[in-house]
Design brief:
Elements: H1 3-13, H2 21-36, E1 41-44, H3 48-61, H4 72-78, H5 81-86, E2 93-95, H6 100-109, H7 115-123, E3 129-133, H8 140-152, E4 155-160, H9 166-170, E5 173-176, H10 182-204
Parallel strand pairs: 1-2, 1-3, 3-4, 4-5
Length: 207
Amino acid sequence: MNEMKIFEDLFTRYPSLEECRDSILAAFYEIKTCFENGSKLLCCGNGGSAADSDHLVGELMKGFLKKRPLTDEEKAVIGNDYISSNLQRGLPAISLCAHNALMTAFENDCAPDLTFAQQVLGYGRNGDVLIGFSTSGNSKNVVYALMTCKVRGVKSIAVTGKSESECSRKADICIKLPETETYKIQELTLPVYHCLAAMVEEHFFEL
């Protein structure tokens, strides 16, 4: 199965996403280019969107639909069958929701709504990509993170509901899912990022 077959299968299973076709494909190409250039993906969001950030990182940093075994050269360098047979090749991704000590320190010492922006400033490098998940599209900490991307040359992708929002105005690419209720937006968020993860994996890993 190649990446475009995975892409088309998304719309077979979720026809309502057809109106997001162009933005989802644009997001895939942006993420693919990021990894091809040796850069990394950053993710952020609140509540269920924080869980989506962690979930997507998990699909990228280890095998998702494929096992992604180490190369023979990598195995030779490690020189240990147990380690080399269990490790999997990953695509570098970081959830900005996962660093509790840093986040609470910055919230206490500085500004709670800038915790994601601070991490973009610290982690972000030219060629990286940030995905900001926000069902409303107006979560301040996500909006501020998208704005901070420009300081570091980080490309930005927002995943929101269908309404025009601050995220859709600030992000380079916005996937506006065709729902307005939070739980319905969340129900469409997962198949979209699963599709992106599967497409990227298909592109980079043969086995």
